[in-house]
């Protein structure tokens, strides 16, 4: 451990460390996992705090009708990787004392992660609060957030960890603030002095510019669940408003906060500008853990163009093989493969490319364009499930040029981001906070073809390391504007370069790797957290 750096407790609802440890849902968890791995690799004193989700996130199955269904099998493996510390903490939920077992996890080359687990018979009906990641709404979600936030601080005390900085990664952990304040008040400080005092040690990251992504609860529900944690209604309202917004609470409890890309910081400042008493919102762009996401053969051959190209050909063949084994589709490794994998939700517009069949279908028929999709809808998002069903239908229509891989996870992400020629990203701007899968693709020599949103605003050198489309236009007719812009770049730049100008394509691949490898690494991100957020 590096003793001159502040010791940070990193709170997050989910962690994507390894495929075998399914306690993550998507980007938020992968980021948290990458941070813990980079912390371990580069000796930053970070300790993770999370929950042990016995059933993890929902598993996606495509049924015979081509609709996705959400399944919730128990994930037995997690208990094999986690180590029992023999320690417990108690939190009060509603009128009951709930016991949380503390597990320790450090088997994935990660900085130590402590996971709290309510799965004990004596917890009766609260036994299941740590079953399913994001399976809880209202009261259940509050119970989960009491476990993460309040339970997390208690666990830190129980374990005797000496923590300098409490990093609330997303609003889910905001209730930790009530516990830190309560501790100070127990030692004699009044509420405002206690708050001012703990604020010095709290930093906050906001993640989503999508309204629904910013969770709030009525003060009545919080009170009922015992989330006030000895604070008064008035004090809770001062922290998070009424209804109580977890994001507003995070912004007010912290000394400094950040968005996860330059543009996202700006969007967040605008979005929260009327919140009095919030901390300044800066931007720290996300990054990815390279030993996890960049193929070793790419790293080993950096600077050797021929070897990089050869590796890329191999990785593409490995992807084609992976797809064949998984769902029988036979893609042609000599033709263009475009990847698109993200949460299936309206603003990410996974179906955009299909919107003018008279234009796109001939390319799918000839196989000149091959598309590979993957992504889950939120278990309760019927609209998102409809989007998946639509992609599955397209795959049936074009069985050897459109593929849908069910149950998107870290393994699929690894094959896809290594193997594809093009990584497509077409969110409705400015709703993509950062996006990290495009970084993974870029570092493996896949070219981004993306709306100028999230990290791509910083990463894109149009026509040099990838392409942008849509010219950043936001407003009426945006979808149609973006669709035609996508087609223009696809037909005028991407296809001609891929099929007729292999030299230029190869140069772009090298540029893609060279311009992203350092700048969008988790190492760089963590350095910035240390110099711009954790240092007082
Ligand atoms: C990298 C990754 C993400 C994040 O993807 P973005 O949509 O680009 O933010 C989500 N899920 C998995 C499995 C990943 O590997």
Automatic annotation (TrEMBL):
Keyword S-adenosyl-L-methionine, does the record have it? no
Q: Which UniProt keywords apply?
A: Carbohydrate metabolism, Glycosyltransferase, Pyridoxal phosphate, Transferase
Catalytic reactions on record:
[(1->4)-alpha-D-glucosyl](n) + phosphate = [(1->4)-alpha-D-glucosyl](n-1) + alpha-D-glucose 1-phosphate
Single GO BP term:
carbohydrate metabolic process
Q: Which domain of life is it from?
A: Bacteria
The record's GO molecular-function terms, alphabetically, read: glycogen phosphorylase activity; pyridoxal phosphate binding
Q: Does the keyword Iron apply?
A: no
For activity, the cofactor(s) needed are: pyridoxal 5'-phosphate
Enzyme Commission number: 2.4.1.1
NCBIfam families with a match to the protein in the record: more_P_ylases
**Annotated family:** Belongs to the glycogen phosphorylase family.
Q: What does this protein do?
A: Phosphorylase is an important allosteric enzyme in carbohydrate metabolism. Enzymes from different sources differ in their regulatory mechanisms and in their natural substrates. However, all known phosphorylases share catalytic and structural properties.
Name this protein carries in UniProt? glycogen phosphorylase
Please name the source species.
Halanaerobium praevalens (strain ATCC 33744 / DSM 2228 / GSL)
């Amino acid at each position: 451990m590096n003793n001159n750096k502040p010791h940070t407790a990193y709170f997050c609802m989910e962690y994507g460390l390894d495929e075998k440890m399914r306690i993550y849902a998507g980007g938020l968890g992968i980021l948290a996992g990458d941070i813990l791995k980079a912390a371990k690799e580069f000796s930053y004193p970070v300790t993770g705090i999370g929950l042990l989700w016995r059933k993890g996130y929902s598993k996606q199955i495509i049924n015979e009708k081509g609709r996705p269904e959400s399944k919730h099998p128990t994930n037995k493996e997690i208990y094999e990787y986690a180590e029992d510390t023999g320690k417990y903490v108690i939190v009060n939920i509603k009128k009951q004392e709930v016991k949380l077992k503390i597990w320790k996890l450090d088997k994935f080359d990660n900085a130590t992660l402590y996971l709290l687990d309510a799965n004990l018979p004596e917890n009766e009906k609260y036994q299941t609060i740590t079953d399913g990641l994001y399976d809880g709404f209202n009261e259940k979600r509050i119970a989960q957030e009491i476990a993460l936030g309040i339970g997390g601080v208690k666990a830190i005390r129980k374990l005797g960890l000496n923590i300098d900085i409490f990093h609330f990664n997303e609003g889910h952990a905001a209730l930790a603030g009530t516990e830190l304040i309560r501790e100070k008040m127990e030692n004699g400080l009044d509420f405002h002095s206690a708050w001012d005092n703990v604020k010095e040690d709290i930093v906050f990251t906001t993640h989503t510019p999508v309204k629904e992504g910013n969770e709030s609860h009525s003060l009545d529900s919080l009170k009922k669940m015992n989330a006030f944690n000895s604070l008064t209604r008035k004090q809770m309202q001062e922290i998070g408003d009424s209804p109580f917004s977890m994001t507003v609470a995070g912004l007010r409890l912290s000394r400094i906060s950040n968005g996860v890309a330059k543009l996202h910081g700006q969007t967040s400042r605008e979005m929260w500008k009327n919140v009095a008493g919030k901390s300044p919102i800066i931007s720290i762009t996300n990054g990815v853990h390279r030993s996890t996401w960049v193929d070793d053969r790419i790293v080993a051959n950096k600077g050797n163009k021929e070897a990089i190209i050869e590796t890329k050909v191999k990785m593409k063949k490995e992807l084609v093989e992976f797809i064949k084994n998984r769902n029988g589709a036979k893609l042609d490794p000599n033709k263009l493969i475009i990847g698109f994998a993200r949460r299936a939700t309206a603003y990410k517009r996974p179906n955009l490319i299909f919107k003018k069949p008279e234009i796109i279908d001939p390319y799918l028929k000839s196989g000149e364009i091959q598309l590979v999709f993957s992504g889950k809808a939120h278990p309760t998002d019927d609209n998102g499930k409809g989007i998946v069903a639509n992609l599955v239908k397209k795959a049936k229509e074009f069985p050897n040029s459109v593929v849908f891989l069910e149950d998107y996870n870290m393994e699929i992400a690894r094959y896809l981001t290594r193997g594809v020629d093009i990584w497509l990203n077409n969110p409705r701007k400015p709703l993509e906070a950062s996006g990290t899968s495009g970084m993974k693709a870029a570092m493996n020599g896949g070219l981004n073809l993306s709306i100028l949103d999230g990290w791509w605003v910083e990463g894109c050198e149009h026509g040099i390391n990838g392409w942008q489309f849509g010219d950043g236009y936001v407003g009426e007719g945006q979808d149609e504007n973006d669709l035609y812009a996508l087609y223009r770049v696809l037909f005028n730049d991407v296809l001609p370069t891929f099929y007729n100008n292999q030299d230029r394509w190869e140069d772009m691949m090298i540029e893609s790797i060279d311009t992203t490898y350092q700048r969008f690494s988790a190492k760089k991100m963590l350095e910035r957290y240390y110099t711009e957020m954790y240092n007082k």
